[in-house]
Amino acid sequence: MKLRRSLVSAAVIAAVISPAAVFSAAPAFAESAPAAQTGNDSSIAELEKAAADAAKAYEQARTHEADLKAKFDTYTTPPALRAAYEKAKAAAALATQTREALDKAAGEAAAAFGRAKEEDRPKAREEMLKAFDAANASHTAETEAKAAADAAMRAMDDDRVAEFRKILDAQEATKAAAATKAAADKALADAKAAAEKPVEKPVEKPVEKPVEQPVQTPVDQPVQKPAEKPTTVTPASDTTKDAATTTSNQPATSTGTTTSQAATTTGSTTGSTTELAATGSGPATPYLALGSGLAVSLGAAALYVSRRKPATRSTS
Prior knowledge:
Helix content: over 70%
Shape: rod-shaped
Largest sheet: none
Number of strands: 0
Radius of gyration: 61 Å
Number of helices: 7
Order of helices and strands: HHHHHHH
CATH class of the domain at 41-196: Mainly Alpha
CATH topology of the domain at 41-196: Helix Hairpins
Distance between the termini: 18 Å
Structural class: mainly alpha
């Protein structure tokens, strides 16, 4: 019993929903076009904003690159680096002079040790060793002073190279901004071209009308007159019978011809009665309408059966 009521309820619901679903399908398709148009407008606005931002970034990159180039053209070494280099250079020059003097003194001490007498040799040897130690120390000091001067010079060169690298980085940023701007402009142009392109409407096929066939009219054929026979005397009864036979045959022939002509004219004029008028509806409309009608009929029948059985049981 519960299963039967469930089936009946499902049939009733299907009968109510089916026509609504069929008749609401067309407005749904009709409303899709304005929504798509609104989406195109919003996307074009976003692309215009992106193109404007890309153009602004490109101009900023170009300005920054030009400023760096102008600054590099008038580049001067920072005063601190220049002062450090000058100081290290002077120290290296002084160390060179000291080393040369000590080398000369060491040579003279070695010569004096060679000329000294036997009793003076220990003292001359001691002076020679001191001169050699001083000369070696001056060599080390000179090497360190020259290294410090070279480091100060490299510091100035590194600072100049760093400024030049800033220009290179700015040029790369300008190229990237130009590529971004070109891509944004192209995307905007493509979107506008797509929006301005007319929407192609589906081509409506002409409804094939039935070809009216011309009515075939019977060709009047000449009536062949009977050959004249010699007159013979016939009884009165035979004459009356022949006249009646001739009269009955002539109307029947004319009536049959008229009926066939009317049937031919009717069939050729009406043609195919299944063609629809060119109202713009789809070819599936008759089937949808027929299915909706069947669904409504089934629901009504199910509702009638479900109401009738309880009434029958109560009466019994």
